Amino acid sequence: MLLLIQYTLIFSSVLTLVALGGCISEHSGVINLGLEGIMVIGALGGALVMSNLATLPGPLLVILSILAAIAFGMLYSCLLGVACINFKADQTLVGTAMNLLGTAGATVFVKAMNTAMNPDNHSSEISYVAAREKFMVSIGGFEFNWFMLLVVVAVVVVYILLYKTKFGLRLMACGEHPQAADSVGINVYRMRWSGVLLSGLLGGMGGLCYILAGVSLWKFENGVAGFGFLALAVMIFGQWKPIRIAVSALLFGLFRALSNVYSGFDFLAALNIPGNVYNMLPYIISLVVLAFTSKKSRAPKAEGIPYDKGQR
Amino acid sequence: MKKGRFLEKEGAQALIASLICILLGVLIGYIVLLCINPAGASESIVNVLKNFMTYSKPATQWRKFANTLAKTMPLVLCSLSILFAYKVGLFNIGTAGQYVAGACACLYGALGLGLPWYACMLMAICAGALLGCIVGLLKSYCNVNEVISGIMLNWIALYTTNTILTKVKEGASPYTLYLDKVNPKAFLPKMGLDKLFGGNEYVTIAIPLTILIAIAVGVVLDRTKFGYELKATGYNKNAAKYCGMAEKRNIILTLTIAGSLAGLGASFLYQTGYMRWECTQSSVPGMGFNGIAAAFLGGLSPIGTLFSSYFIQHITDGGAFVNTNMYCAQISDLISAVIIYLCGFVLFIKLTIRKFLAKRGDKAPKKPAPAAGKGGDR
Fold first, then answer.
1. CB burial string B86-99: b at 16+ within 10 A, e below
2. How far apart are the C-alpha atoms of B77 and B211, rounded to whole Å?
3. What pLDDT sits at residue A206?
4. To the nearest whole angstrom, how far is the Cα of B138 from the nearest Cα of chain A?
5. Is the residue at B372 inside a domain?
6. Cα dihedral across residues A166, A167, A170, A176: positive or negative
């Protein structure tokens, strides 16, 4: 039971972080379908720090690897910003390309790195056993991960940022009606860039959190198994509102956690359902949930439409 | 002057934009190789581009060319599936899952039920269509974003397929049974086409059929009332509804057709015996995603898709020829991902060409303005 709670919390942390990223980006008017790629690249940044600087003292290592994940994520999100804000490219297409590029790029990079260190090593794995322990605090069998605390902070910060600051209100105006925002002197391009960069920040952190969730080595060929899109489903279910996103992430996290730990429950194991069904569960649930919640969607009105100054 | 006229054509601009994307994509791939290890970079990038041409004997080259060709056909169908939906304003990222469902249906039909090839093919089409239909229903009745529902269905299809095909897999290995041992009837007929390619057993009627389908998709979209209705729905759903079109039906129908194309694509690969399904696969096959690259690289034209798909498959296969002591085969995935990304800039490239033309037009002596027939302002 403790294990289930632990996994639920850690997976919902991932989903919350990434969904908050998607939420900020969409409030600024850019649909960020590239979150999956951003997660992979962020995870790569974090994993590099964790495997190379594992000897550093605990708190410093934790902070450094999170900072690396953030930096990688933000840098990578610039690809979306340049294409979709400055060059008015199709946001769906660019987001998809970023997902493919993230996995392919990370795989090529890690393989090259491994081969350079040891000519016989052609795997795409980075291992970070020692570093992972520094993220964890064991409380009576429950592995507390610092990310769980970080997520609570992130939810509060994003809530205040969006609803209580001038910046946040302006950002949201750019997602609702950019022409109107522009007419009162808000720089729409700058606001959208901030939205995209912030989503890179949160997406990168989410990626690092994801690879720390259950394992201590990561194979970059696998990417993040649709988590970026699950996060978008969470965001829609959360109606683009930070607090609701956090709550709905708990629900999705629970179903994702079930696939990891179902064999530990006697009554679930007795049902004798194949493991693949549990693997499918989060995706099925999100489809069902989306079917019921998308109808009266509170999506920002101008999301997905490139801002054109000349348009009325 | 002649060149100027050539550039003014929409098709020529699309072609130039695609070529620029390819060039930049390959260049970036080359730079990545250089960064990893400058020693073998040139040789490896040339090998990626040469693919089967790296073999020295012409006969072997011809046979290996047929291999790439056989694998191009499913890719063409996947990109047609994306193209068809995109023309109607829908981004069918679910193609990957529809392709997986097709693979599941045709392999189970062939290995589990022992059906002949046409029945398996039909099952693959239906499975893909079913998945597409679900996305369409969700989109039109529940307003679910087709990209997100498509991705969810991709994963659901993958795990379902793994479960179902485990029933027809070889004892110890994770792969499904061999078609030729269990049910040779399920092979697509070759009609002597294999003889053209030095007896390559993977060459089947899939190749002419695919070309016919590409032409058919083009005709339906550009020459029929049905196609126009679909496109009108894509441009403006509400306007289409106002004009009396069944906009919901059109969306569902589009995604169903797109899904069936992807399902058929899977049948064209798995029923040649080229590949077997691996029942422990943990990621969705890249075919559907490469289809996105092919569709946009082909300038969103069905005929262009034939060529762009071949190119994408060519470099994907070419990835196997890099020097694996230094590099990995994923470099071709990287190149195609970069190409998709660059395709986002196609509009910008076209605009630049047009601006360039307009500038040149200004310098040239002005032709008399076209007769002011439209001047009905008063």
1. bbbbbbbbbbbbbb
2. 10
3. 92
4. 6
5. no
6. negative
Helix, strand or coil, per DSSP, at residue A219 = strand
Residue B373: its pLDDT value, please?
40
Window 269-298 of A: residues touching B by CB (8 A cutoff) are: 274, 276-277, 279-280, 283-284, 286-287, 290-292, 294-295, 297
Q: Which residues of A are less than 8 Å from B156 in CB distance? A: 280, 283-284, 287
Please state, in angstroms and rounded to a whole number, the distance separating the CA atoms of residues A69 and A203.
9
- In chain B, which residue's Cα lies nearest the Cα of A106? B334
**By residue range, what is the domain housing residue B292?**
2-361
* Residue from A31, A103, A108 to probe the interface with B (highest B Cβ count within 10 Å): A108
* Spatial CA neighbour of B299 closest among B262, B343, B354, B353: B343
- The reply to whether B69 falls in a domain is yes
Q: What is the CATH number of the domain that holds B328?
A: 1.10.3470
Looking at residue A263, its pLDDT comes to 73
ipTM of this complex prediction, to 2 decimal places: 0.86
CA distance A222 to chain B (A): 7
Rounded mean pLDDT, B98-118: 92
Phi, psi of A126 (to 5 degrees): -120, 135
Nearest to A100 among B144, B289, B324 (CB): B289
Domain ranges within chain A, ordered by starting residue: 2-224
What residues are paired with A145 via a beta bridge? Answer: A136
Using a 10 angstrom Cβ sphere, with 0-12 exposed, 13-18 middle and 19 or more buried, the burial of residue B7 is: middle
C-beta atoms of B93 and A88 within 8 A? no
In chain B, the number of structural domains is 1
- Which tens digit of pLDDT belongs to each residue from A170-188? 999 998 988 888 888 889 9
- Residues in B closer than 8 angstroms to A82, CB to CB, are none
pLDDT grade for A312, boundaries at 50, 70 and 90: low
Does residue B209 lie within any of the structural domains? yes
